[in-house]
Specification:
mainly alpha, 7 helices
Length: about 170
């Protein structure tokens, strides 16, 4: 590949990693964790912590903490290369599986606690007969029903990562 094309590729990779890092904060993960995920996602082979640190210009502690978290989420896995003591990492490359993994984790971290709070608030105000309490209870009941519906849909979608049906149905909406 000539120098110009290589520079264009590196620029595109840098843009993707930066943007994925920004998106990650919307998913409830930190920018560095998302950037590491992006780097591993676009890498053609498993890479070491040292390579990740060098590419993203981050500390070993930052790299190790975020790599552990990504492994915990199931978005990346450790790869052991024969004859090497160093650990290497690779990302899940299947987009649908990534969606399912991220959906399950967000459900656990965000949706389930929200449902718990909404149920508690609805229960605490159910028997209060003031106009303000009735309005509050009605609004939260409707919100709870909506969040539970979304939770149910997310649950069904994230369980179907091995199914080809849900992704095919979703393509119909393009």
């Amino acid at each position: 590949m000539n120098i110009t094309k290589q520079a264009e590729l590196e620029n595109a990779k840098d843009q993707f990693i930066a943007q994925w890092g920004s998106l990650g904060t919307s998913w409830g993960i930190n920018r560095t964790m998302a950037q590491i995920h992006a780097l591993l996602m676009i890498s053609s082979e498993a890479i070491s912590t040292n390579e990740i640190m060098e590419e993203l210009r981050i500390s070993r502690g930052n790299a190790n903490t975020n790599l552990r978290d990504l492994v915990g989420w199931g978005l990346i896995r450790i790869v052991v290369k024969k004859g090497e003591r160093m650990e290497y990492f690779e990302a899940e490359k299947d987009v649908w599986r990534m969606f399912c993994i991220i959906s399950r984790e967000r459900k656990r971290r965000e949706v389930e606690p929200a449902i718990t709070v909404l149920k508690r608030c609805v229960g605490q105000t159910k028997l209060i007969k003031t106009k303000e309490a009735k309005q509050f209870n009605t609004q939260l009941t409707e919100l709870l029903e909506f969040v539970e519906l979304c939770d149910s849909l997310l649950e069904k979608a994230s369980r179907s990562e091995k199914s080809s049906i849900v992704p095919a149905v979703l393509k119909l909406f393009k």
